[in-house]
Amino acid sequence: MTIAALGFAVALAGDACHVAAGVTRYEWDGVPVIWRSQVWFPFLVAGAVLLAAWSGRRAGLPAARVRTRADVVTGAALVLALYALTAVVDGEPATVSVVLCGAVACAIWSWWDPSAGAFAIALSAAVLGPVVEIVLVELGAASYADDALFGVAPWLPCLYFGAGAVASGLWAAVSASRSSRPVR
Amino acid sequence: MTIAALGFAVALAGDACHVAAGVTRYEWDGVPVIWRSQVWFPFLVAGAVLLAAWSGRRAGLPAARVRTRADVVTGAALVLALYALTAVVDGEPATVSVVLCGAVACAIWSWWDPSAGAFAIALSAAVLGPVVEIVLVELGAASYADDALFGVAPWLPCLYFGAGAVASGLWAAVSASRSSRPVR
Amino acid sequence: MTIAALGFAVALAGDACHVAAGVTRYEWDGVPVIWRSQVWFPFLVAGAVLLAAWSGRRAGLPAARVRTRADVVTGAALVLALYALTAVVDGEPATVSVVLCGAVACAIWSWWDPSAGAFAIALSAAVLGPVVEIVLVELGAASYADDALFGVAPWLPCLYFGAGAVASGLWAAVSASRSSRPVR
Hints:
7 helices; homotrimer
């Protein structure tokens, strides 16, 4: 529940940045809107985050770092910051925006959980997320201002990589004991 | 002493960014200037940082993380980076700048000290800081290029939130033993 | 070997950002190009990183934090993110770009290894790196769009400071045991 709500909230705030900056545009008419997103979008992301978190738990691969509830706040905030950053750098040359967002996403993964399991889920997210969005663009649901990557923005895989990395460890982190000992 | 000097230095460098970028402008004439700030500004901030640090110590609420002198450098650098970032994103739509700066501020709080006490002081700073600045704008001391929030910029509470979070734990961190053991 | 390869890769991706954004331009004709860099550039940086890493090991000063292989990924990603960031903020007033990049570089140093030894090597890099680039600009090899610092960009020392700080501890970090224990 917490995990889906987290995905929902980050999707809503991040997507508001994209729409406000003109990075993306919804193309279907008459669909109800929450903040600046058509209702289907945050639910889709919440489901995807839940799926990634469940995969991470299901795979049962050893995490390189044990994450607590406090870390979840940092992880979600960093992914949201990366989301908003993509809105800022959308007008830059693709090389700049992809290297910057890719480096930040890589730093998020290696800080959150530098394990092979988290990397595999992050990489899957970096492929599957954009593929789903490419299909949505093809269906006429939405469009990107910069559509250099088969209709979506070239930095999109980087954003999914960072989000997927954090999502992969959410189940364990959220289930962690509330009372975390002071860290020295 | 260290704490006030830190607040003074960060205020001076951060404010230089705001003035250089045209984000803020001093409106009173004939007031002496240090770097790009009128003298009253860095002293005001230094006093506010000292007050927040003293409140954090006085409240005596348990910190979730014990911070050392080395962490103080990181904390001050991150707050200054957020300060300079606000100068960069001032021209962006308010949704983008507020979400980006808010997410970074939240990450700073949850990294520095994800405790209820630090959150309370950060939140107080996010309210009181902008209120004081709104009064200063009303008095004609200064003005913001983007004055959407009662005369000040909409991202201003985010900057105060991040700064307040770090300030809340400065007393304990600065008093920490100089010789920090290597952390594994 | 790993260290030189890391320096080579970060230099190549970061320089691609600078060239793509028009921050720097290669001026010699007929020199072979890898991605967007003339071949001598990434080799020069790889050598410099190796030298800084060797100096750090040779000096044998105590590190304030023991870094592992996973930290190397985070450190390299953060330096690359700073590299790409300089391409984004190159058009900003010098005060803004220098304070922002300087604060990020300082945060990287104090996170990676807040020791006097790492600081000394970072500071040396912040002086020597730009000096070498100033000579290269004088020789007509390359040019900067913003040449306010004797022909190079004013934020360049900040980038070298962050890179030098991480490079100073690479030898120990890369030599660290592959199997890092889970960190709590």
